[in-house]
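Suppose you are handed only two things: the residues of a chain and a line of SMILES describing zinc ion. What would the bound structure be? This form records exactly that question and the answer produced for it, so the two can be stored side by side and reused later without any lookup.

QUESTION INPUTS
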Amino acid sequence: MLIADLNGSRIDADMARRSGAYRCPVCKDEVILRRGRKVVAHFAHRPRASCIARTGETRAHLEAKRVLLDALRARGLQVEAEYATTEVAEDRRADIMVWSPSSKTPVAIELQHSRINVPDLEKRAQSFVRSGIAQLWVPFLDPGILDAADQIAPDILKVDRYPIQLHVLWMYGMVGEDGLWMYQPRARAFWRATLTDHMLMSKEALWYEMGAVKRYRQGGTRRSRRFRTLYLQGPWPADALRLNLFHRSADSSEWFNWPEGRLATFVPVAETECEENRDYYQSTKSRDAPSESRR
Ligand SMILES: [Zn+2]
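ANSWER OUTPUT
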């Protein structure tokens, strides 16, 4: 974790001194400050601690939080890492919570490194909605996935066979046509992702069943159940991105439920054409009215 409790106040590992009675804000156990050349400064539980705050805490996840926290803070925004909201169920604090300077709307940015099952995701999304918190889900690109990518334009990569992960599909459905933002740990950068069906070709075939019944199958294409084709545009470092708020309506599919509520997305600075509120601009763009331009 990046944030510990010191005498009742939150302290950032970057600001912490070696010695100090740091405590985990969740379980209140003592935690140890770790600093090294290869890992961002953080607080660690003792080896056998069974705290919920330890789950999913990888080096890449710590780094991702650090990168966003620093970029948003550098812009003068009110931002916190590992921010607990009393109303969000269980512990699971928001990885990053940032407040819109104009509307004061809190925005939770969730950097999803590990797989998470869809019912848990939906529960968490619902609790953000109930708490009036806008949400932005950012799954990680698996290591090696870009090794198999084709560069089809100067800033666009295509991964022809991207293995389907349900939580990624849910997040993609959540954000809709604006595209899903994904984080690449190696580059510490963000990509805008679009998923399309991966089509499989089947050849025309003629065979005899049981040695007698003539069977024929037309050639053609069908949709893969295991793969999608992933297009990635980018990469952008965190400081080249701005946040944009919008509203989506409830929707469901065979497998998924998406709540109605406010979402946030990143917008590359170059694409923001807003003059008056350059640092953080918003719109009331509705998912039902995609033609309405960003303001
Ligand atoms: Zn703990």
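WHAT STANDS OUT: The longest strand covers residues 220-236. The CA atoms of residues 153 and 233 lie 9 Å apart.
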